[in-house]
Write a structure and sequence with these properties.
This protein has two domains: 74 residues, no CATH class; 159 residues, SPOUT methyltransferase, trefoil knot domain (Alpha/beta knot, 3-Layer(aba) Sandwich). The chain is built from nine helices and seven strands, in the order ααβαβαβαββββαααα. A seven-stranded parallel beta sheet has the order 3-2-1-6-4-7-5, sandwiched between helices. The radius of gyration is 19 Å and the shape is elongated.
Length: 234
């Protein structure tokens, strides 16, 4: 059944025994790698792209998020079609991320606030913070706007932190994928040093749920395979 939009994805555990049953079929090196990487995953920082539509930019943003251990990447599209989340630039990053899609930005904001997030948005001027002074004492969702028009005015009442990325040339702003790379790397590095591990990294239950979701993607007929394996086990 197709999931509805305007719902945060990747928060359900799915088949709770999928990893236990399916992971033994993986090559030992891949299985070990997945178990190592899940320990580095965080939900403390998440990325939101509003109406970013160029496949190159979308792919680069996802690749940056995945490489920095940022597990959740959200798309809020107010007027553009939802972008394709597969591209040669992404290099398969979408396979390892939890991607959510929203048409209603207010529903998205409510969901973030309920989960304890602050919302930070990058602007070229008139900002209270620069990137390296952006508060990191609470979970933060970084919102980046459309390539041409930037962040929609509808976000204004919901932004907790307005910040800028220092620039020293004649151009007024970075490309959105470059901005994502600079921001996520900076925030993740700062958080890894300043935020306790049990707050920054996914808790054990969420790590296990993520492994379940990852290994499920290696199955062509998940429910049937799990049923057969459960029968054999019993």
């Amino acid at each position: 059944m197709k999931r509805p939009r305007d719902v945060f994805m990747g928060e359900d555990e799915g088949a709770s025994d999928a990893w236990e049953l399916l992971s033994p079929r993986l090559a030992e090196a891949r299985r070990t790698r997945m178990m190592q990487i899940v320990l580095e995953r965080t939900a403390y920082i998440r990325l939101c792209l509003q109406d970013v539509h160029d496949p190159h930019n979308v792919g680069a943003c996802m690749r940056t998020a995945e490489a920095n251990g940022v597990q959740y990447c959200d798309f809020v599209n107010l007027y553009q079609k939802f972008p394709k989340t597969t591209s040669t630039v992404a290099r398969g990053a979408n396979t390892w991320l939890d991607l959510s899609r929203f048409r209603d930005h207010e529903a998205y904001v409510r969901g973030l606030k309920e989960r304890g997030y602050k919302i930070a948005a990058a602007y070229p001027t008139q900002c209270s913070y620069e990137l390296d002074t952006l508060p990191i004492d609470q979970p933060t969702a970084v919102v980046l706007g459309n390539e041409g028009e930037g962040l929609h005015d509808a976000w204004a009442p919901h932004i907790d932190y307005r910040f800028s990325i220092p620039m020293y040339g004649m151009t007024e702003s970075y490309n959105v994928s470059v901005s994502a790379a600079l921001i996520l790397y900076s925030l993740v590095q700062r958080c890894r040093k300043a935020i306790p591990s049990d707050e920054f990294f996914l808790p054990e239950k969420a790590q296990h749920a993520l492994l379940n979701r990852w290994v499920a993607k290696h199955s062509r007929s998940l429910e049937k395979e799990l049923e057969n394996l459960r029968t054999r086990k019993s």
